[in-house]
Write a structure and sequence with these properties.
The complex is a heterodimer of chains A (250) and B (251).
Chain A lengths: L3 E12 L2 E12 L3 E5 L6 H8 L7 E6 L8 H7 E4 L11 H9 L8 H7 L15 H13 L5 E5 L7 H16 L3 E5 L3 H7 L2 E6 L2 E6 L1 H8 L4 H8 L9 H6 L1
Parallel strand pairs in A: 3-7, 3-8, 5-6, 6-7
Antiparallel strand pairs in A: 1-2, 1-4, 8-9
Helix pairs in contact in A: 8-9
Chain B lengths: L1 H18 L1 H21 L12 H31 L4 H4 L5 H31 L7 H25 L3 H18 L11 H8 L2 H14 L4 H23 L8
Helix pairs in contact in B: 1-5, 2-3, 2-5, 3-5, 3-6, 3-7, 3-9, 6-7, 6-9, 6-10, 9-10
The chains are: A alpha/beta (250), B mainly alpha (251).
């Protein structure tokens, strides 16, 4: 039987009157790449925040690598890497300085200089983070999530802002890390990225899971031609499929 | 923890140097005050037939200006600024503890306060012939204790404030009364009785009394009280700072 890296049962998260996540179940096998998909505001980032113990939740059970994110935080963070949707850094910090700081927090971190090389950021090591392009900053935030050689990594919109070449570089690197045993939990709005990377996906809308399975299962279940159409079908945007909205307007 | 603290300290020190406005305040304000007092006081005695000069009486108080600027402005404003800009959020999902983040700021600001103090004493000694009458070791220990107590207040302000704006307000509320009423700028001895009572409530006043007592070699009965008040302030401030530490402000 395969090992479970992440298990979420009946997660409910509320913000005052809004139920951001409603009775969500997730199960991620160790060594797999799992994609959580959904429109903006669907509850993807909130789910990640709850799973990592960053935000309290109303109901549910969460286990990450056999640990509780609320009770075993320190142990968990030694083994789990995180890249948030938006990363912020001190104004005048340089790339190598933030790498040194993050690296110093872990017991047996990876060589961050090697990671800079793999991410094609080596030449930027002594540059201010603020002077990097959007894509370079995004690559840096993914790199920082990998610095402690995690067993599992959470990547929230991992390639937003990257050009097509850089996106493919990141995919190749993540695939390689995954082949070496890294479990990856990601969110993305790019369906080509999901097709290229994910073994399994879960589509959520208004905090509720509406479809889950392999990308091929999702396509088959929807009766559509590809994942993008299947995704639109499941988030109840059927009119968007085949550009029908544009057609209607015209 | 030690390894990560040293790296965080080194980086924060460089960041503060690049920022420079805070450093400027923490280092050069006490130097400016020292120069002014040195010129004004010359070698005047503190009072008729006093065993020490006005300058010898004032050096200890001037040193605390740097402690206050770094501890009540540098520490809380940096931490609350990081929180407001969501820089600390990253550390919430890491093994970094609140204590590590607070101590890194302590060490960074302490370095600047010590640089300022060395410069102030240097100017006093070489510019105006200052000599410490009391025991320098006791003086340094008292200086360290006062520094920890003031920094603990700064860290507490950073933790309890619910926004950067409130942190700014609290800093002003703590900094300026302490700055003007504790004897750091206006000598305690010149204050009217009513104002002295108010000044005595402030930990900085106790610290300045202790520094004066150790630098002038006049150990007084209330010196021990000052030590206990500063230890109590340091412990309570740190407990509140760590317990109420937030990585991000609630939106």
């Amino acid at each position: 039987m395969s090992k479970i890296a992440l298990e979420v049962k009946g997660l409910v998260k509320q913000y005052k009157d809004l139920t951001a996540v409603n009775d969500l179940d997730l199960k991620v096998e160790a060594g797999k790449i799992y994609g959580l998909l959904g429109p903006n505001g669907a509850g993807k980032s909130t789910t990640i925040d709850c799973v990592l113990g960053m935000k309290p939740y109303l109901k549910g059970e969460i286990t990450v690598l056999g640990l509780s994110p609320t009770k075993d935080r320190k142990k968990l963070y030694q083994r789990v890497g995180v890249q948030f949707q938006s990363s912020f850094y001190p104004e005048r910090i340089k790339v190598y300085e933030i790498c040194e700081m993050i690296s110093a927090l872990y017991k047996s971190p990876d060589d961050w200089r090697g990671l800079l090389k793999q991410f094609n950021l080596e030449a930027k090591s002594r540059h201010y983070v603020a002077s990097l392009s959007g894509g370079e900053r995004q690559k840096l935030s993914v790199l920082l999530a990998l610095i402690q050689k995690p067993e599992m990594v959470f990547l929230d919109e991992l390639t937003t802002g990257l050009d097509p070449k850089a996106r493919r570089e990141v995919w190749t690197l993540l695939k390689k890390l995954n082949q070496n045993g890294l479990t990856i939990f990601l969110t993305s709005h790019y369906m080509d990225e999901v097709m290229a990377l994910c073994d399994e996906v879960n589509i959520i809308n208004h905090g509720v899971s509406v479809a889950s399975g392999t990308p091929q299962d999702i396509i088959a279940l929807s009766g559509m031609q590809n994942l993008e159409e299947a995704y639109l079908y499941f988030i109840d945007e059927k009119e968007m499929i085949h550009g029908e909205v544009a057609f209607d307007i015209l | 923890m030690v390894k990560s603290l040293l790296i965080f300290y080194k980086t924060e020190f460089k960041l503060a140097f690049r920022e420079f406005s805070g450093v400027l305040f923490g280092i050069f304000l006490p130097i400016g005050i020292m120069l002014l007092l040195g010129i004004l006081y010359g070698d005047k005695l503190a009072y008729e037939n006093a065993p020490y000069t006005l300058l010898q009486q004032s050096v200890a108080a001037v040193l605390t200006v740097g402690i206050c600027a770094t501890g009540l402005m540098g520490v809380p404003l940096t931490l609350s600024g990081y929180r407001e800009k969501k820089i600390l959020k990253r550390f919430k999902a890491s093994p970094a503890s609140p204590l590590l983040l607070i101590l890194a700021q302590f060490l960074n600001n302490m370095t600047y306060a010590i640089i300022s103090s060395v410069a102030v004493v240097g100017i006093a000694v070489f510019g105006f012939g200052y000599r410490m009458i009391g025991n320098p070791v006791l003086f340094i220990l008292s200086y360290g204790l006062l520094m920890v107590a003031i920094y603990a207040i700064g860290a507490m302000i950073a933790s309890i404030a619910k926004s950067e704006k409130i942190a700014n307000m609290l800093c002003t509320l703590f900094y300026f009364p302490m700055f003007f009423l504790s004897g750091a700028t206006i000598p305690y001895e010149l204050m009217p009785k009513g104002l002295r009572f108010f000044a005595d409530i402030m930990p900085l006043t106790q610290g300045i009394k202790l520094l004066k007592a150790t630098s002038l070699g006049e150990w007084q009965t209330d010196s021990m009280n000052a030590i206990w008040i500063l230890i109590f302030t340091a412990i309570l401030g740190m407990i509140i700072a760590v317990r109420t530490f937030k990585y991000e402000y609630e939106s």
